[in-house]
Design brief:
CATH architecture of the largest domain: Alpha Horseshoe
Largest sheet: none
Number of domains: 3
Low-confidence stretches: 1-33, 40-62
Shape: elongated
CATH class of the largest domain: Mainly Alpha
Helix content: over 70%
Radius of gyration: 42 Å
Distance between the termini: 100 Å
Order of helices and strands: HHHHHHHHHHHHHH
Number of helices: 14
CATH superfamily of the largest domain: Tetratricopeptide repeat domain
Length: about 325
């Protein structure tokens, strides 16, 4: 007989020891089966939980620098925000969010007044943009930064790129607004009015454009001629009475000393007064009169531009 047959036979013939052994062994086998099943289930659940936790941890590890960077930027801690954004770029250089991260870095640099770094970051963001709308948004931010740094030609180029891409209505309106602002900063009144009309039909803005195009301008040639006729008269022409009187008194004093030296037959002194002092102040008076005209015209244009920009600000803030 096989050993198992002998074992079964003993239990049938009433061998208590054999029966008890079989009985308890059977119970142990059944119990083992019942206990093994929950253990396997619990083990599987543990493995699944560990896997999910690991995946969650990986996702959190990726999102943590971005979330922290945004929070730090919101509270004004731009240096720390930039550090967190760069940490993300270091560990995830191929992540789909790379363009957005460079964009956020550019905004943080701009908030700190680091214009060169901001321009570089925003250009990089434009390069990594994943879609047309994102690229247009990044280019508009770049245009704002270029306008702030008086790089008007480069800013206009970025706005043209956005226009050629045919962006959404919202981005299109932002482009029109920035184009108007750009032309106003350059005192290109006609072009600013043309683009501004596409952005808004505000009547007050139209009136301000009329005033800007009719700003009183002085002539540098007229100021130069007047200064040659009578020193200081060119300054008075632009309303600068203090410098005008100062130029008149100085040139008059040196002219008097020159004439007095001639009358006293001190020709060497007269030549020195006329050649080294009087001629210098006389020519300088003419040059400064021309500069005064330029400053006068620039100030008037800036005042007109400031009035237009303030009105645009009101229009933007009006619901």
């Amino acid at each position: 007989m096989m050993p198992d047959d002998v074992y079964v036979q003993k239990t049938i013939t009433g061998d208590d020891n054999g029966f008890n052994t079989f009985f308890y062994k059977s119970l142990d086998n059944e119990q083992h089966k019942r206990d093994s099943k929950p253990r396997l289930q619990r083990g599987a659940l543990v493995l699944i939980s560990i896997f999910l936790i690991f995946c969650s941890f990986t996702t959190s590890a990726e999102e943590l620098p971005l979330s922290l960077g945004r929070h730090l930027a919101e509270v004004g801690n731009y240096d720390a925000a930039i550090t967190e954004y760069k940490r993300f770029l270091f560990f995830h250089p191929d992540d789909p969010h790379v363009g957005e991260v460079h964009y956020n870095i550019g905004l943080a640099y701009r908030a700190e007044g680091l214009w060169t770094e901001a321009i570089t970051a925003l250009r990089t963001a434009t390069h990594y943009a994943m879609d047309r709308e994102s690229k247009s948004e990044y280019q508009l931010a770049l245009a704002v930064t270029l306008i702030a740094t008086k790089n008007y030609d480069l800013a206009e180029l970025e706005l043209i790129k956005v226009m050629l891409r045919n962006p959404s209505d919202q981005l299109h309106r932002r482009r029109l607004f920035l184009q108007t602002v750009l032309y106003i900063y350059q005192f290109r009144w006609e072009e600013a009015r043309r683009v501004g009309r596409e952005y808004t039909t505000d009547e007050r803005l139209e009136t301000l454009f009329d005033a800007a195009m009719n700003v009183p301008q002085k002539s540098a040639n007229v100021a130069s001629v007047l200064s040659r006729i009578l020193p200081g008269l060119g300054h008075i022409y632009v309303g600068d009475w203090r410098d005008g009187l100062n130029a008149l008194l100085l040139n008059g004093a040196f002219g008097f000393l020159t004439v007095d030296a001639i009358l006293d037959e001190h020709y060497t002194d007269a030549a020195l007064w006329a050649g080294l002092v009087l001629l210098r102040y006389y020519r300088g008076n003419t040059f400064r009169a021309e500069m005064a005209v330029e400053q006068f015209n620039l100030q008037k244009s800036r005042q007109a531009a400031e009035a237009l920009l303030q009105r645009l600000q009101v229009i933007v803030n009006t619901p």
